[in-house]
Structures are given as structure tokens and as C-alpha cells.
Design a protein that fits this description.
single chain; alpha/beta; 9 strands; Rossmann fold; four-stranded parallel β-sheet; binds norvaline; binds phosphoric acid mono(formamide)ester
Length: 305
């Protein structure tokens, strides 16, 4: 069976990503014009969450309804997955009763094992390693505000986490530059990041990473699943805060993005996230539109606009 999954950003090629952006723009315009578009009537999305979520759950659930389909929410705590049913068995069963599955979980290997046993497309709704749907929304948002991202510079300030690894895959695929600055003990893991990538420049000083950037972006100091390191991280990340001073060294029209939820006063100041350069609400909304385009593509292939 030739099923297309979206487990990592680079599971899709440049042409497919561009197609999804084109469709997302069209689907968004239909939605904004209150026009019904039901290409996935009678289709069912199953969403499996092992970690908390607001945006991902809401955008997938609302998105599937808006495309004419239905969405079912499963939480591992109250499904048999939480009582040790093998992921492979769950995949066999769940994929016989649904048309597409979205999973938010811990290790990437869990979602890979699920996909290997699934009869339907599987979408990564965040793992410890990657958050590809978020980066789709972020780049779509950049393009909406500033045009093509190719050749531009994105500065990632903070943790080497699922977001940063996905940004790197996107930079390689779509041809933009990625400046990364992390605290010394939280550097990129070479098992997950291609440190030889031509797109990547690593900076010790976050101010150097931000210099001349077209887009400044960051994320929480402690991602879900790493809460035990919270206190240590608070100390080590203190200088990796996006503030006005950092914004000033970026391009004058630089955008600020954050996947949310944010901690004002930690990774970003209120001045920046609530300021004129910030597009975080558009970024959050665009999860809805790009994921509708993604589900359309995974289930129906290339629909012409
Ligand atoms: N950005 C994001 O994935 O948000 P949630 O954790 O609320 O889904
Ligand atoms: N890096 C964060 C993103 C949350 C949407 C986490 O994994 O918790």
C-alpha cells in the first residue's frame, strides 16, 4: 500500500509543500467567505494525545468538521494504549475504523511504529523530536506577511527541541538560512540535526544569531516531557530571551513567531510577543488552514485550486 504519512517535515518534498501552501490559501479564503467546502465528507480523523494540547486538538478537530468529516479524540490515559496495548495492535485496529490518524506523543519511534502498521495516513501532531504541522503553519504565515521565504534568515533562540529540529529540515528543503543559538548544555543533537547543513549556522551568543534576521522565533525553555529539568533550565536559559534589544538587531521589519503556549518573562518579553512585529495569533490560526490542506492532500492527492 502506498500511503503517505507526515511524520517529519521532509516526508514531503518542496513541490508538495508548495502545493499545500497554495491549497491552504484557497481553503482559508473559502472559510473566510463562509463558503462550504466538504471534500472529506464521511471521512473520520482519529486524534491520539499522550500530551496536553489546545491548538493542535482544536485546529485538527475544527478543521476536519469544516471539511465535512468527523474527528474523534482519544487520550492515552483513557484508552487501552495507556494500559499497555502495543502500538502496533492499536494501529491495526484504529486504522481499520478511520481515514486518517493524528498522534501527539513522546518518542518519534512510537509514531513510526504506528505508521508502519497503519492502513491510513498518519500525521505527527508533535513528538519529542519534531513538530512538522507547526512549521508548516509558521512558514505559511511568513509567506502571507512577507512573501517567499527562500533566501531569508530565520533565527532560532533557545532550546534545541522539536521545533528547532523541524525548522532545520524546512530550511534544508525550502532554501532559507537558519541561525541557531542555544545554551551550551542544550545544543543540537547531531543524531537529529544535520550539523553540516549549508542552511545552518550555530552561534554561541543569541544576539549574533538574531543579527539581520528576517524572522525571530523561540519556544518554551522546558518542553513537555522534560519538566524534571525545569529549575536547571530556568538558570541556564536566562540569556536566551527574545527582548526588545534582540529585536532591534534583527531586520527592521523582522517578524516574531512563537508556537505557543508562551511564558512571558522567560523565553520572550511581553513587549515583543504583544508588540508590532509579532504575528503569533495569525500563526496559531494558520494551523487550522494548513492542516486542512494537509489532510486534503494526504487523503485526496493534488486537488487543483
Ligand atoms: N503550538 C501547539 O502545538 O500548541 P498546543 O500544544 O496547544 O497544541
Ligand atoms: N516545544 C514545545 C512545543 C509545544 C507546542 C513542547 O514540546 O512542549
Amino acid at each position: 500500500m502506498n500511503i503517505k504519512h507526515f511524520l517529519q517535515f521532509n516526508d514531503l518534498n518542496k513541490d508538495e509543500i508548495e502545493h499545500i501552501f497554495e491549497r491552504a490559501a484557497w481553503i482559508k479564503s473559502q472559510f473566510k467567505g463562509y463558503k462550504k467546502y466538504w471534500p472529506l465528507e464521511d471521512r473520520t480523523l482519529v486524534m491520539i494525545f499522550e500530551k496536553a494540547s489546545t491548538r493542535t486538538r482544536l485546529s485538527f478537530e475544527a478543521g476536519m468538521h469544516q471539511l465535512g468529516g468527523a474527528a474523534i479524540y482519544l487520550n492515552t490515559r483513557d484508552s487501552q494504549l495507556g494500559r499497555g496495548e502495543p502500538v502496533e495492535d492499536a494501529a491495526q485496529v484504529i486504522s481499520r475504523m478511520s481515514d486518517v490518524v493524528m498522534i501527539r506523543t513522546f518518542e518519534q519511534s512510537i509514531i513510526e511504529r504506528f505508521a508502519a502498521n497503519s492502513r491510513v495516513p498518519v500525521i505527527n501532531g508533535l513528538t519529542n523530536e519534531y513538530h512538522p504541522c507547526q512549521i508548516l503553519a509558521d512558514i505559511f504565515t511568513y509567506i502571507e506577511h512577507r512573501g517567499a521565504i527562500e533566501g531569508k534568515t530565520v533565527a532560532w533562540i533557545g532550546d534545541a527541541n522539536n521545533m528547532s529540529y523541524t525548522w532545520l529540515q524546512a530550511a534544508d528543503l525550502l532554501g532559507f538560512k537558519l541561525n541557531i543559538s542555544t545554551p551550551p548544555n542544550y545544543a543540537l543533537d547531531p543524531a537529529l540535526a544535520n550539523l553540516d547543513s549549508k542552511a545552518l549556522t550555530v552561534f554561541e551568543d543569541p544576539m549574533d544569531a538574531a543579527k539581520g534576521a528576517d524572522l525571530l522565533t523561540t519556544d518554551v525553555w522546558t518542553s513537555m516531557g522534560f519538566e524534571a529539568e525545569n529549575e536547571e533550565r530556568r538558570k541556564e536559559f536566562a540569556d536566551w530571551q527574545v527582548d526588545d534589544e534582540m529585536l532591534k538587531v534583527a531586520k527592521a521589519d523582522a517578524l516574531f513567531m512563537h508556537c505557543l503556549p508562551a511564558h512571558r518573562g522567560e523565553e520572550v518579553t511581553a513587549d515583543v510577543i504583544d508588540g508590532d512585529n509579532s504575528v503569533v495569533w495569525d500563526e496559531a490560526e494558520n494551523r487550522l488552514h494548513v492542516q486542512k490542506a494537509l489532510m486534503e492532500y494526504l487523503l485526496l492527492g493534488k486537488v487543483e485550486s
